[in-house]
Amino acid sequence: MVHTLHGLALHIATRHPEQSGLDFERLTLVSPTQSNRLIRICVEQWLSAYPQTYQRLLEGKGFDGEETERLRRQSVLRTEVLPDLAYTVIHEAKSSGLLPPHLWELSHQEQRISADGIDYGVLSIAAGLYERYQVLLQQRGFIDYDDMILAALRVLENDSIRQFWQSQIFAVFEDEAQDSSPLQTQLLKILATDPNNPTQMNLVRVGDPNQAINSTFTPADPIFFSEFCATCQTTDTLAEMDQAGRSSPIIISAANFLLDWVNRQYGGADRTRFHPKTLPFRPQHIHPVGFNDPQPDANPDPEGAGLEVRFPPDVYQTVNLIGLRVAELLGREPEARAAVLVRENRQGRFITELLRHPEQHGIEVNLKQLGIDVFDVGEQDRQSHVPSDMLTLLHFIDRPHSPDYLKAALQLLIDRQLIPAQDLNALVSLPEQFLYPSPLDPPPSESVLQARRYCTGLLRARLQLPPYQLIPFMALTLQYEQAELATADKLANRIALQTFGESSLSSMIDALSEIVRSERFEPIETDDPDSRYVRPGQLTIITMHKAKGLDWDFVFIPFLHEQMIPGTLRVMPQTQFMGDFNLAEIARVQIRSHIHGEPEIPDPQTAWIRAASLKTAEEYRLLYVAMTRARRLLWMSAAHQAPFSWSKPENLDRRSPSPILLALVKQFPIALSKR
Amino acid sequence: MSIITPPTAALPNQLLHRLYQGLRQGQRRMADWQSGTLAVSAVPGSGKSTGMAIAATILLAERYLAKQSQNVGGWEEIEDTTADLTEGWSLQEPPPSTPPLSRLPASPTISSSSPSPALPSPTSKPKFGNTYANCPYRHKDSWCIRCTD
User: Fold this and answer.
1) Cα B143 from Cα B64, distance rounded (Å)
2) CATH superfamily of A307-377+536-672
3) Chain A, chain B: beta-carbon pairs less than 8 Å apart
4) Domain limits, chain B
5) Closest-approach residue (CA) in chain B for A158
6) Is B125 on the interface with A (CB under 8 A)?
7) CB within 10 Å: which end of chain B, N or C, has fewer?
């Protein structure tokens, strides 16, 4: 069976409600919005419970008691700093199996003197917030994702149940093991254990610590998989899959060079202090595949030099160079695939805008006229329409006589090109006559008849189908394509879970309204090799994070500035009154150091420096992931003039290139040669 | 109600042989895995997910075939024993007091003293017969999917 970790945990926990304490008659999965609301409440509760600590935070550095400054600081603490701290700590601690009492205990060991002498006691603030969050969660009958894993672990404490599940599972194969949290790993280890011989475990963990790119903003921590690898190495049960046929040899060399360079640069003398256990990269080189490899066209011949590095005058010229090169390459090979990988969505939006309106921005090529589609993945996500489509139709079948709801539903059917465009105002002014005409009404036109058929079909579904089947039915009615259907299914599941026990049309509408109103529902991406992201002959614009697992013939990575990669851990100007660090990052490092079994909790200053070096390491791993997406051409650039912030891309000033780019051209001078 | 249709004797082995021969060295470590813990550190583009899928297929198929060769009896018996591999999750309402179902026959363990650690050491009860003199697995069967000749 193939499971996600949470799916597996939920499966086990709901099978044994008495042991898990998970009773879905009573409990619902907390949605991100609800969770944010709870965090805000627990911050308010914490403020009134700890007025002195709050005061200390408020005064921070250089406070003269001025009233407007006090109000400003209050707002920053209540709405940014403390919610951020709570969010980070709750996830970090809970996914490692630490509960509030553990955190309290930990906070007593904390060395609380930071370099500038301000005594904040980050972990005790964190413990106080976490404690309140847990109480609120229970009072309101919510559980979160970590609770699912915890519940499954509780179930498995029972000997006979544990043995039952262990006997059901011969072995566990885990993919993307570098992204697992300690609690998830614990669950898999228990399940993989032989019930008759507790020392025997059938567990295969596959992963790549060098592609860990979520560890600085989620509880995923590659150190555990690295340790597992190290342990297995001593017993000769570590397999290295180090041959890869994806890329041309020079691209592989460039990726290996990056890895060595970063390890040398950042893993050297400071290693014992900041990274007691790991280097930024596991020192594992990629090797081309051997002769006679079954993969067709393994390690293909490069396009040109295979590696091109450019330093254009500004970011507009950068996009121009990309456009020209793409036009040339895809003109020659219309079936080839190309992508631009960006660090953040706003860069993607900038590139898309320029390439779609070339004449306005001095771009010398019009890709659209050449038949090359510019596909901006971020734009697709922004337009994620499935939840609101579903809500539109649910509103309609709930109250078909409402002209507004009817009109919205008809408009949707027109937008999906299911019925002909027509004057809807005429139809919706008399909904009853439109939907269920009497024999006396004048005969409608064919386009009205088509519209009526869809509408009455939907209304029949309401009467004949159980509520949880409505969304899949409506998705089919709208003739969604594969990815949209999968997204609709995911949405239906989530709503079924949220409305469990009181499944009705109105409860579904409530749950869906909340999703549409307040948060982004991540759509499903198809795994289909022809999927939208890697379609031949188009230029895909995608973030480096999203690109993981995909590849293209030609990969462009622009805007590689020092400020971006490696970048720095920025302290927002508005929070600088507390000192030059971020409480959430400090707490994360402190909690992790405990989980990693370090003898003492680092003081805030040390923790902050360590957080910065973790961030540096992760940024370089992200670049490594991006570079290894390329099959035949890897094109990288840093413009002399670039914006400080991509929310204002027109404000250009001088920016230094990322140091790795300079090192790369020194090592591979061919990368600079013009063809 | 097994979803596996009775294969002819040669066919699955040919298929497995072809799958196995198409694997790279690192992927074979996964396909050779029989029990215990295994860490696989995979570089980008190395065929991690493909390798895992094929390794799991080979593992399940080999255990199935091994079981088949032991149960010369009717298909029903075989289906019963494979049920916990293929459909373990779908069992209805497991009573917590159920005694643990016995596992499939003990599998060979990877011996650290073996010359090549990737290779399972010979089992007292060979899974497959024997025609290949050079079979590194000392299999005594013409079915060995790991032999290249």
Assistant:
1) 14
2) P-loop containing nucleotide triphosphate hydrolases (3.40.50.300)
3) 177
4) 10-90+106-113
5) B96
6) no
7) N
